């Protein structure tokens, strides 16, 4: 998972009938040039065909794995979505809408949901897209030893396949499932290809809008349009050349010279991209950075020290120094305006260094007493800001870089770290990932704030179209924010620079959707 960032979307419409039915209509430049030229020469010239429109996308998060079960739900899911489709996808409001499934319905109790798949679909290897493929995908995500998704699927007890109907039995009432089983968590691979996950990682086979024709691991992928994709009529790009981005400072020049025509960029590069005559597309995201504290270890086993850190953090400094005007301060894992954002919790721990000093004194600490190692995976300017802000209240921070940081972080062995997420499509999943006793982003596991479990259970039990859904969800956010394990700092949208001949993309939160996108002038 990246130590950078993002948070969450919203919900579909559930119509109460005898069975609750949800049926939503579907819908340096020279260096860069040398690199891409060399990549194009790989594979005996296997590259995008000369005809038609070609998307030349260079990405800072080129997938390290093309098996979606192993790749997980981090930022790279956007690139795997070129190849794989899911039961649902996310629209511009963050709602779950049909993808491979054309409709779905809950039983009366809310502990079983049936997805009805579109007829006549097939994977790029010719295998049918049916309920058996859904069953295989869920079970593999739950059971494969190196699965990065098993923790996201704890609500699923079993899947029964009946032709094109996938009946999912749940361990609890959970109306979040359509949100959950979208592109982030259940990109569906051909069951035949997935029998060898290692081979699938090298030769991805899905039912998405494009088919991989060449893959150079960690470096380049070449794809062509999939004529059998269910919504192929609305895919107007013929070929894709996806490359791993070179140094950020060369991306803009590569876009200027036509080496690329689409790239994710750092906020520091946005002005240069605009001055170069490129479109800078601000994609809504659910990114949120935070300080992660382990309250099972000193000094954070003292609530007064935790509160002192909360009041010592000046969130606006992160925004001013790191986002170049594109971000905003946040004290929650959700952006303002999103359904799960809780206005009542805003600014609960305002920046107040004098109060922080007082709390530390009450806890018996003189200035300089507390010495902390801030362990991070790579150099990060966020760490220097944290170091400086805590020094102002008398806490000494030493920044330590551990390239294997993920191992002690997810084993909950660190005392103090930084984290950032790209969020989830289910607000409940975001909450439990941060605040739940087994949450991967909860450095203080198995700790959870009082009342959080009950608040989350109530959200799961509330249909997404219920009149009180928003307040129930915000109450769960409020309960989660009582956690002493996380101090949120800032959020920033996803920034993309593109050539002007690429039309605007749908503004689906955190997703890149190629539906309806055109590239004028061919190549």
Automatic annotation (TrEMBL):
Swiss-Prot/TrEMBL keywords: Signal
Protein name in UniProt: Peptide ABC transporter permease
Leader sequence residues: 1-37
Gene Ontology terms describing biological process: peptide transport
Superkingdom field: Bacteria
Domain Solute-binding protein family: 96-424
Gene3D superfamilies linked: Dipeptide-binding Protein, Domain 1 (3.90.76.10), Dipeptide-binding Protein, Domain 3 (3.10.105.10), Periplasmic binding protein-like II (3.40.190.10)
SUPFAM superfamilies reported in the protein's UniProt record: Periplasmic binding protein-like II
PANTHER family registered for this protein in UniProt: D,D-DIPEPTIDE-BINDING PERIPLASMIC PROTEIN DDPA-RELATED, PERIPLASMIC BINDING COMPONENT OF ABC TRANSPORTER
Organism lineage: Bacteria, Bacillati, Actinomycetota, Actinomycetes, Kitasatosporales
Transmembrane segments: none
InterPro entries listed in its UniProt record: SBP_5 (IPR039424), SBP_5_dom (IPR000914)
A single GO molecular function term of this UniProt record: peptide transmembrane transporter activity
């Amino acid at each position: 998972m990246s130590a950078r960032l993002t948070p969450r979307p919203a919900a579909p419409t559930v119509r109460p009938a005898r069975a609750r039915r949800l049926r939503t209509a579907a819908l340096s430049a020279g260096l860069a040039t040398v690199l891409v030229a060399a990549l194009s020469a790989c594979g005996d010239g296997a590259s995008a065909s000369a005809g038609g429109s070609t998307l030349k996308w260079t990405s800072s998060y080129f997938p390290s794995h093309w098996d979606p079960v192993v790749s997980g739900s981090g930022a790279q899911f956007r690139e795997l979505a070129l190849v794989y489709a899911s039961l649902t996808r996310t629209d511009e409001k963050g709602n779950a809408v049909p993808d491979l499934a054309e409709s779905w319905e809950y039983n009366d109790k809310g502990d079983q949901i049936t997805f009805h798949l579109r007829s006549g679909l097939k994977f790029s290897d010719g295998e049918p897209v049916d309920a058996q493929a859904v069953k295989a995908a869920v079970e593999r995500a739950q059971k494969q030893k190196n699965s990065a998704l098993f923790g996201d699927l704890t609500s699923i007890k079993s899947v029964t396949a009946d032709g094109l109907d996938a009946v999912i039995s749940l361990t609890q009432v959970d109306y979040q499932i359509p949100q959950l089983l979208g592109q982030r968590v259940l990109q569906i691979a051909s069951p035949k290809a997935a029998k060898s996950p290692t081979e699938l990682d090298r030769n991805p086979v899905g039912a998405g809008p494009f088919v991989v024709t060449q893959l150079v691991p960690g470096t380049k992928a070449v794809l062509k349009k999939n004529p059998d994709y269910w919504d192929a009529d609305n895919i107007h790009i013929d070929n894709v050349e996806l490359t791993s981005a070179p140094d950020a400072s060369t991306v803009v020049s590569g876009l200027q010279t036509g080496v690329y025509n689409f790239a994710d960029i750092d906020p520091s590069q946005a002005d240069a991209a605009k001055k170069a005559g490129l479109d800078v597309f601000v994609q809504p995201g659910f990114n949120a950075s935070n300080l992660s504290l382990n309250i099972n270890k000193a000094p954070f086993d003292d609530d007064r020290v935790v509160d002192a850190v909360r009041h010592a953090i000046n969130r606006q400094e992160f925004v001013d120094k790191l986002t170049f005007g594109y971000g905003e301060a946040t004290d929650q894992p959700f952006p303002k305006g999103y359904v799960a954002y809780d206005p009542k919790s805003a600014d609960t721990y305002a920046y107040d260094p004098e109060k922080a000093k007082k709390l530390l004194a009450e806890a018996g600490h003189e200035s300089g007493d507390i010495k902390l190692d801030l362990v991070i995976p790579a150099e990060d300017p966020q760490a220097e800001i944290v170091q400086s802000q805590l020094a102002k209240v008398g806490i000494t921070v030493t920044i330590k870089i551990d390239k294997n940081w993920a191992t002690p972080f997810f084993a909950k062995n660190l005392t103090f770290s930084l984290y950032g997420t790209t969020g989830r499509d289910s607000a409940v999943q975001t909450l439990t990932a941060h605040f739940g006793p087994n949450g991967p982003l909860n450095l203080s596991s198995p700790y959870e704030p009082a009342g959080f479990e009950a608040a989350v259970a109530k959200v799961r039990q509330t249909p997404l179209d219920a009149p009180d859904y928003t307040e129930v969800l915000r109450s769960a956010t409020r309960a989660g924010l009582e956690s002493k394990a996380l101090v949120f700092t800032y959020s920033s949208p996803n920034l993309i620079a593109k050539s002007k001949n690429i039309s605007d993309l749908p503004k689906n939160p955190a997703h890149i959707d190629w539906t309806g996108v055109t590239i004028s002038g061919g190549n």
